[in-house]
Amino acid sequence: SAFERVVKSVVQELDHSQELTPVNSLWSSAGFQPYCLLGRRPSSSWFWRPRYKCVSLSLRDILEPDAPEPAVEQDSPFHFHETMDGQLKGSVKLAVPGQGKISGKAAGSSSSSASVNVCMLRVAPSTWEAMRRERRLRKPEHKILQQLRHRGDDVFVVTEVLQMQKEVEITQTHKQEGSGQFALPGAICLQGKGQGHMSRKKTVTIPSGTILAFRVAQLIIDPDWDILLFPNKKQRTFSGPLQAGRTGPGSQPEPSLRVSDQ
Amino acid sequence: LKFLSDGLMEDQLETTEDFQGLQLEVGAWAAGLEGLSEEPCGQLLGGLGQVLQDEHALEALEELLERGLCGGQVEPQDGPVGAILECLVLPSRQLEEELAGPVSYLLGALAVLSETQHVLLAEVLEMGALSEVFRLVRSLLEQSSPWQERRAVSLPPELLGSSWGAEAPSWVLLEECGLAPQAGDPQVCWEPEARCCTSALYACLALLSKLSPP
Fold first, then answer.
1. Of A18-32, A48-62, A234-248, B106-120, which range is least confident?
2. What is the mean pLDDT of residues B153-167?
3. DSSP letters of A98-161?
4. What contacts 24+ positions apart, CB below 8 Å, involve B124-128?
C-alpha cells in the first residue's frame, strides 16, 4: 500500500540499525502510541517472528493508581522528501516446439512523491525506573492480561515512536504500456498483434499524529511487573502454570530465565 | 550449564537460518497434512482462498484455531471459516492437533505477509499458478542462501510466464517482501532484510501446494 511504502522509505532513511518496527496499516496506527500494550504469540518458526498486535490497553490500565502516564520526550522534527520516478522495460519471447510463438514488450513508469515531517517521541529510561518503583500491578489482574497469560502470549509496551507532525497527502501513479504478437501454426495459420496501456493513480492522506513506526520493551509479569528494555528472545512475559504457548511441532515450552535468576 | 546450553541453541539457530533449515522446518509442518484425503484438502484450500481475501475472517480463523489449540471446544461457524474448521475438528469438537498445527503454522506465516500479498495468493490459487510461484520463490531462496549478503539472483525464465512485469502476481509478491524484481534480465536483488518475509511467503506457498491436487 502507499502508506506502507512511505513508512518503509522513512524508516529506512532514519533507522539503519532496524530497531524500529514499521506500522503496517494506517487503520491500526493509533494502537501504537507510547505506553500502549501489544501482544505477541510465541513464534512457531525459527525464521520469522509474529507481528505485534494491539490489545487495546495502556500501561495505566494495568497499574495502580489510575494516574495518567508521565509525559514523553520529543526530539526535534525531521523533514523527509522523496520523489521517485522510475522507468521499467522488459521483453519476453516464448517459443513452444510445434505450437507457435508469442512475443511481447512492456514498458512501465511509476512515480511518487512524499514530503513528510516526522519526529521521535520516547519515554525516558528513568521514567520506567520510577514507574516500576512507585506503581504496583492492579489486583485483580486485568481481564485482557488474564487472556494473554492463558494463551501464552508475550506482552510488550511501546517505548518510542516515529510520529507524523503534519497531515500529508501521498499520490502514487503507475503507467504501463505493452504490445505483443503471436503466431500459431497449423492447418489454419493464425497471427495477431495487440497493444494496450494502463494508468493507475492512488492517493492516501496520512493525518497528523499518525504513528509510522515504534519500538517496544518487554513486560515481565510475575508476580509484580518489570520491564526489559532490550527484550531477550528466551524471556517470557508470564511464567506461571497457566501458560499455554506453543513453539513448534512436538516442541517443549522453553524454560524461562528470570531477571532475578541472573 | 543453563547459559551454555542457551549459547549452544543460539549457535544452532545461526546455522539453521538458511534455505536447508527452512526446508526442514516447513517440511516438518507440511508432513502433518500428508494424511488428508482429496476432499478435505479441497475444502481447506477453497476456504483458505476465500479468507485470504477477507482480513477479518483471517483474523477470526487464527483466533478460533488458537483457542482450540489451547484445549477449548470449537463451536460451529458460518462461511469459509466454518468450512475450514470443520475439516480440523474431531467428533468431540476438539481440534485434531496433527492437522490444526500445520494450519496454525500457515496462518502464522500468513500473518507476516501484507494484505496485498494475501489477496495475490488468493489470485494465484484461483489461477492455478501456485506451483510456478512456489518454484520461483524456492529458487530465489535457494540461490540467495545463506541470505546474509546482498546479491543479484537470476530467476528461471520458464517460471516467469509471459506477463513478467510490475503487474505480475509473483513480481508484486516479491516486491512486497522488500525485494526489487527486474524485468529486462529477469532477476531480483536479494536483500538480507527481506529474509523473514520471503521465508514466510515460501512457507505459505509450500503448505498451500501440499493441499493442492498434484
1. A234-248
2. 86
3. TTEEEEEEEEEEEEEEEEEEEEEEE--HHHHHHHHHH-EEPSSPPHHHHHHHHHT-EEEEEEEE
4. B124/B169, B124/B170, B124/B173, B125/B45, B125/B48, B125/B49, B125/B52, B125/B208, B125/B212, B126/B49, B127/B169
Cβ atoms of residues A122 and A188 within 8 Å:
no
Alpha-carbon span B139 to B160, nearest angstrom: 12
Please tell me the distance from the alpha carbon of residue B96 to that of residue B80, in angstroms, as a whole number.
Answer: 18
End-to-end distance of chain B based on CA atoms, in angstroms? 48
Which residues does chain A have within 8 Å of residue B112's beta carbon, measured at their own beta carbons? 48, 50-51
B115 to chain A, closest Cα gap in Å: 9
Question: Is B119's Cβ below 8 Å from some Cβ in A?
Answer: no
Taking CB atoms and an 8 Å cutoff, what residues of chain B touch A13?
Answer: none
Alpha helices in chain B (DSSP H): 2-16, 19-30, 38-51, 55-69, 79-88, 97-112, 115-127, 130-144, 169-176, 195-211
Instruction: State which residue of chain A sits closest to B182, comparing Cα positions.
Output: A88
A183 has pLDDT over 60? no
Other CB atoms within 10 Å distance of the CB of residue A206 = 21
| Amino acid making up residue B49 | G
Closest-approach residue (CA) in chain B for A249: B29
Cα nearest neighbour of B116 on chain A: A1
Q: How many CB pairs under 8 A join A and B?
A: 95
Mean pLDDT of B123-139: 94
ipTM: 0.86
Interface-testing mutation among A25, A28, A47, with chain B (most B C-beta atoms within 10 A): A47
Range of weakest confidence among A7-16, A58-67, A96-105, A114-123: A96-105
Q: pLDDT by residue (tens digit) across A48-107?
A: 988 898 999 999 999 998 888 899 999 888 887 777 655 444 444 444 444 444 455 555
Assess contact for B112 and A51: CB atoms under 8 A: yes
